[in-house]
Amino acid sequence: MSVIDTIVEAVAPRENERTHQEARTKAKAVADSGDWLSLILEHHELIEAAFAAVKSAGAAPTRTAAQKVLAVLLTGHANAEESVIYPALTRVAGKGYATEAYSEQATAKTEMAALETLAPMSPEYLQKLEHIRDAVAHHVYQEESTWFLALKANASAPEQITLARRYKEEFDRYVGGDAESASTEVANPESSSENAEGITTQHRVPEPSERRELPLA
Fold first, then answer.
1. Residue 178 and residue 42 in contact, taking contact as beta carbons nearer than 8 Å
2. Does 54 reside within a domain?
3. In a domain, 106, yes or no
4. Is residue 125 within 8 Å of residue 54, measured between CB atoms?
5. Total domain count, the chain
6. What are the pLDDT digits (tens) for 130-180?
7. In the list 54, 76, 143, 186, which could disulfide-bond 174, CB 3.0-4.6 Å?
């Protein structure tokens, strides 16, 4: 187990399924149709399904394809939150929540990069995948139980509209498609058309030179 794995395991306690579901139910109750919070909750569910697809894959090519879909969803979602939602959270609730959120997502990105170096059907791969999933689940729980409820309660009506528009723009800028098409790829990771390099053309993973690393607020 790497040093980062140990840290992730230590700082990402496993809330039980009931606690997670209670937080999500509460978040859905305050979300409005088509607003920024409903979009984020939809993407959280897509990411959870993508983790399950990677874990359940029965062969290396299927797992690799599912991992690419997961990586695109995670990075697109993180970029949209970091550029739009967390700055707004800082304005209404101070830097505490947002600083923790940035840090947790940076760790997840680092661990996803490390996952790519492991043999997809190895025990080490599954162990790291579970560490990442646990850390992401804890992060999602914090957003849905506390952080985003504070933003929803304190942002003005005009700002709520802007947040929805800008979050969707940033997510689509990276992912390159809507949540429905992403959902199709989560369910059938091998069904996407692939180019000669084996990268899906519908949700293409940008080259390193194309990726945007955003500064902490």
1. no
2. yes
3. yes
4. no
5. 1
6. 999 999 999 999 999 999 999 999 999 999 999 999 999 999 999 976 555
7. 76
